[in-house]
Amino acid sequence: MEKFQTLTSTFVPLPIENVDTDQIIPARFLKATTREGFGDNLFADWRYDKAGNKISTFVLNNPTYSGAVLVAGKNFGSGSSREHAAWAVAGYGFKVVVSSFFADIFKGNALNNGVLPVVVSEGFLANLFAEVTADASTTVTVDLQAQTITDNKSGKTESFQINSYKRNCLLNGFDDIDYLLSNKDKIEAWEAKA
Amino acid sequence: MGKTLFDKIWDAHVVTAVEDGPTQLYIDRHYCHEVTSPQAFDGLRNRGLKVFRPEKTTLSPDHNIPTLNQDQPIADPVSKFQVDTLTRNAQEFDLTLYGLGHEKNGIIHVIGPENGLTQPGMTIVCGDSHTSTHGAFGAIAFGIGTSEVEMVLASQCILQPRPKTMRINFEGKLQKDVTAKDLALYMISQLTTGGATGYFVEYAGEAIRNLSMEERMTVCNLSIEMGARGGMIAPDQTTFDYVAGREFAPKAAAWDKALAYWKTLKSDADAKFDREITFNAADIQPMITYGTNPGMGMAINGTIPTVKSVDAASRISYENSLKYMGFSAGEKIEGKAIDYVFLGSCTNGRIEDFRQFAAAVKGKKKANDIIVWLVPGSWAVEKQIKAEGIDKILIEAGFELRQPGCSACLAMNEDKVPAGKYAVSTSNRNFEGRQGPGARTLLASPLVAAAAAVTGKITDPRSL
Question: Chain A partners of B411 at a C-beta cutoff of 8 Å?
Answer without folding.
Answer: 27-28
